[in-house]
Amino acid sequence: MPWNDQSGGPPRGGSQGPWGGGPRKPWGQQQPPRPTPPSQGPDLEEMLRQWRERFFGGGGGSGSTSGGGRRGFRWPVIAGVFVLGWLMTGVYPVNEGELAVVTRLGAYSRTTTPGLHWHLPAPFEAARVVNVTGQRSDEIGCDRTSNNCPDAEEGLMLTGDRNIVDIHFKVYYNISDVVDFTFNVRDPVNLERTSDLGAVGQVIESAMREVVGRRQLEPIITTDRAVVEQEVQQLAQQVLDEYDSGVRILQVQLLSAKVPPEVAPAFRDVITANQDAQTAVNNANRDASVIVNEAEAYRGRTIREAAGEAARFSSVYDEYRQAPQVTRDRIYIETMERVYHNGNLVILDQRSGAVPYLPLDGMIRRPAATPPARPNGGGN
């Protein structure tokens, strides 16, 4: 029977083609394409169903064609995903200016340079990335005139002359050895910026207190600021090197050094008293210097006169040894001359045999008349 004539009669309504796919049509003709409905975007329920079927198998619902109920988990796929994620936790980047210290079961293993690296995931290995070129800083003390002063007593220090000074300073440092910095000192830097300083800040504060405790208050707040900064940097670096901390101090900057406001009036009184005391000491030293100079001059003059008298006596003695009688008479005459120099005495030589005429009135010395005292007030 031909394909196009199965009933032997004319085609009836609703008759099918040879394949049962619709009305009979010639072989060269096809049905016109059906219009495609507009896209509605991804179907969320369809996506969830596909994922559920992928991991749990074809479900046991009414629309399932697999039958037999829900199948078990695909454990190898899930385990592979978890293992891959666990391995990916070991990937870590190291930026420029940083180094990473890798520890294996808590012990030092290696140091890695900038780049993308991988280590065994936890708990086998861990990496700590440290910035070794960046400049770090710690600030100790505060400016009491500003509102940002959480601890006003942090900068109070005792000087060598038992005075109180308020120190506000800042220290700059970086990391010189990343391994020592990581392992040798516990909490070297206060990363949380809490009220407690890290080990580096505590060492620098201790060095500042030691240097201030050896100096007087006035030089600290006036002329010795640069010297204090240098001494604190050297002392703190020495202590940090003894600890093998891996820290290099770059600069200590003394921002302010002054007397606390609570004791400022008393400090001014002390300064005034010290100035008065220094003035009195200077005056006393000046008077003492005058007295000492006069005493030194008198001593020198007395010594010279004694030395001259001794030399004169020695020369007279030498003359006396050569001519005793002449020297004796001369000494006697000179002595009498000194004795009677101011006296009213006339000496006559009886060996001459003549009686001279002596004008006694002219020969007697009379003292000079003193002028009469003038009456007080200038009146009659």
Describe this structure in words.
With 380 residues, this protein is of the alpha+beta class. It contains nine helices and nine strands. It has helices at residues 44-56, 75-88, 178-183, 199-213, 217-221, 225-242, 264-322, 324-339, 360-363; strands at residues 91-94, 98-104, 107-112, 115-118, 125-131, 136-140, 156-158, 164-175, 247-258. The strands form three sheets. Strands 6, 7, 8 and 9 form a four-stranded antiparallel beta sheet that branches. A three-stranded antiparallel beta sheet has the order 3-2-5. β7 (156-158) and β8 (164-175) form a beta hairpin. It is rod-shaped, with a radius of gyration of 60 Å.
